[in-house]
Design goal:
By secondary structure, this protein is α/β, with parallel strands linked by helices. The chain has 2 domains: about 10-190, Rossmann fold (3-Layer(aba) Sandwich), CATH 3.40.50.150; about 195-260, Orthogonal Bundle (Helicase, Ruva Protein, domain 3), CATH 1.10.8. It is about 35% helix and about 20% strand. α8 packs across α11. The termini are far apart. The structure holds S-adenosylmethionine. S-adenosylmethionine (SAM) binds near residues 15, 41 and 45.
Length: about 260
């Protein structure tokens, strides 16, 4: 592997399984001249086939020791622009310059949730996203109401994007192998996203509701909403938070948002 020692602090688990790489590329289906941005290209396991498909690609890599090896691995495959930066701080709206981009990444597990929310803050600049994440995180992203995995992440994502689990990947596909299974997920930002002040209220509700999952909504949300508010939104105060649909949480958030501006 080009003599590069994977760095744990950057979550470097490099993909080496050709069948898995091909499966990911088939799901993305890169087309000539699409604007594709890869987060964390590493040594180019995905970058190379993406470049073959799209002809050009922009990659954001935090590790300043990798771009040289990456550029030489991708030589002759297309036009590769590498930005040496932290994706958590990147301004994806400016990067897109009005052309909605397709984001791709085998993401470092330690930054996956903050990165997802950072990206969804730039949703208008994004056409779709295909990410490899820790399977347990994907379970929470796509969970149905009433299940153990349904929670804050599920609801917060559901009001911002369509989320689809594509397939799971075992540790053996990576060097070094991670301790956990992974899964590939597709996210498509919704056309209509609630206003920021509604999203702020939603986050308050979710923190309150899911930090005390065992409590009824009436008890856990008591500081924020009254029983009559729950009734206005058609919500049973005796229910537990994991049974409440994303749209019900959103109605409550909208109610709170009108109150804070009045
Ligand atoms: N895409 C390569 C592959 O599939 O073999 C590497 C995947 S590895 C799991 C994660 C990559 O993300 C590494 O190259 C790492 O250096 C990079 N990375 C980690 N944190 C990052 C950040 N905050 N911004 C950009 N890249 C980051």
């Amino acid at each position: 592997m080009s003599g590069v020692r994977p760095r744990k602090r950057f979550g470097q688990n490099f993909l080496h399984d050709p069948a898995i790489i091909q499966r990911i590329i088939d799901c993305i289906d890169p087309r000539p001249d699409e604007f594709i941005v890869e987060i964390g290209p590493g040594l180019g396991a995905l970058t190379q086939p993406l470049l073959r498909g799209a002809g050009r690609l922009t990659a954001i890599e935090i590790d300043r020791d990798l771009p040289e090896a990456l550029q030489s691995a991708c030589r002759g495959l297309g036009e590769l622009t590498v930005i040496n930066a932290d994706a958590l701080r990147a301004d994806f709206t400016t990067l897109s310059a009005g052309a909605p981009m397709r984001l791709v990444g085998n993401l470092p597990y330690n930054i996956s949730s903050p990165l997802l929310f950072h990206l969804l803050g730039h949703a208008r600049a994004i056409k779709d996203m295909h990410f490899m994440l820790q399977q347990e995180v994907v379970d929470r992203m796509v969970a149905s109401p009433g299940s153990r995995d349904y929670g804050r992440l599920t609801v917060a994502l559901a009001v911002r994007a369509r989320t689809q689990r594509l397939f799971t990947v075992g540790p053996g596909a990576f060097t070094p192998p991670p301790k956990v299974w992974s899964a590939v997920v597709r996210l498509q930002p919704l056309e209509e996203v609630p206003e920021p002040r509604v999203l702020d209220q939603l986050d308050r509700l979710l923190i309150q509701a899911f930090s005390q999952r065992r409590k009824t909504l009436r008890n856990s949300l008591g500081k924020l909403v009254g029983l009559d508010d729950l009734a206005t939104c058609g919500i049973d105060g005796q229910a537990r938070p994991e049974t409440l649909s994303p749209s019900a949480f959103l109605s409550l958030a909208r109610l709170l948002a009108t109150r804070t501006t009045d």
